[in-house]
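Final report, section 2: Outcomes. Of the targets proposed, Transposase IS200-like domain-containing protein is the one most frequently requested by collaborating groups, and we therefore present its record in full.
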Amino acid sequence: MARQARVKAENAIYHVRIRGCKAKPLFEDNYDKEVFMDKVSKSMEKYKFKIYAYCLMDTHVHLIVDSYGGDISVIMKSIKERYTFYYNKKKKSNGTLYKERFESTIIENDGYLIAASLYIHRNPKDIIGYRNTPETYRFSSIKSYTGGIDEFKIVDSEFILSIINKFKYFAVKDYVKLFNDTMNIENNKFKELEMKLDMEFENVKYVNKREVLKRNCSVNILAHFIAKEIGLEVEELLIKNRSYNKDMRGIFALMATSLCDINSLEIGKELGGITASRVCTLTNYGIELLRHNSKYKNIFKKFIAKEASII
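The predicted structure is given below as C-alpha cells.
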C-alpha cells in the first residue's frame, strides 16, 4: 500500500512525534538526550524553525514545531539524520533507529496548541520518580512555562503564553494552573480539554499574529550582503580551498540553504562548482560559526531585517 501523503503547509504549526523501533530505545541515557537536543539546535540554525514545546522520553519524542515558512519534512529529516549518525557511530552499527516516518498533525486552533503543550509537558508522569512531579523533568520545556529557563535554549514559550495572557506574569500563573489541572485527566480526554480551551481563547487567533519567513531570497542579494559583512569581494565566493574566505563560503552555504529555496547542487554551482557533499560540510561549518563566533551571531537577523520577506 502506498504511503499517504503528509499534510503540510508553509505557515503551519505541527505536533510531531518521533518513535524508536521496538527493538531498541531512542535514548539509552541522559547523554543521548543531551546530544539529541544539540542536534535539534543545529538544525534550527540551519532551517530557522521554532520549537514551542518538547519532551524527550526513552522511546519517543514530542515536539511542537513552527515551520516558520520551511518544509517540515526537510526539518525533521535534518534532526533525525543528525541524531542517527551520532547513535550509529556510538553503537558501531547502521541499523534502523526509528519506527517508520515521524508522525505529524497540523495544529489549527489555539485550543489544540495549548492542549498539545500541556499533553507534552505531562508525559514524564510515566517515568518512575516523576509521577507526581513531571514539572521537574529535565528533558522537557515545562520550566520555561513556569517561570524558569530552558536549559537547552531552543524553546520559544512566549508565543503560547501570549495567547493565555498578554502579561507574562499572569500568563505563567494561568499556565501553571492549567498544567496542574491536567494531572488527573486521562490521555483520551485531551480532545475535550482542547475544545474547552479553544472556546476560552476563541477571540485570540494565532494565525493573525504569527510571522512566516518567506524562503525565496535572491542568491545575488544574499551573496553581496555576506561579502559586505565579512569585508571581501563577492567574486571571492567562487574561490575554493582557501582559508581566508572559508567563513564567507560557509555562511553563504548555510543561509542559502535556509533562505533561497535552492538545493545543495544549485548552491554548489554558486560556490564555483562543488559537490552537494562539500556544500553540506560548508553548511555545518557555517552553523558552528554562528554558534561560537560572536562576529556572526546576528548575521541572519541582520539580513532578514534588511532584505528578507516576513509576512
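The longest strand covers residues 13-19.
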